[in-house]
Amino acid sequence: MIKGLPEKLKEQREKYHYSQKYVADQLHVSPSIISGYETGERTPSTEKLLALSYLYHCSTDYLLGRKHDDPETMIELDGLKSHQVSALIQFIDSMKS
Fold it and tell me: Would the CA dihedral through 58, 67, 15, 74 be positive or negative?
């Protein structure tokens, strides 16, 4: 079991008001598997952990407790061109000063 993972998985599921059945359907597993993840009786595979991070719009690092970033403050960069990402980074840096 990975410390803190069960709590984060449950917290994220409840944040989006997803049922365990809904999450299970999205991951193509049974609801008892999701329950096991949330109680710490089971640990998701790398593939399932990645799927959960996509479903919950957060990083795997967040779920694993490696970063204390709040998923609410994360910015989705998929679909942006490199010059758009650069402009966004420059804007964020200017806001920090």
Answer: negative
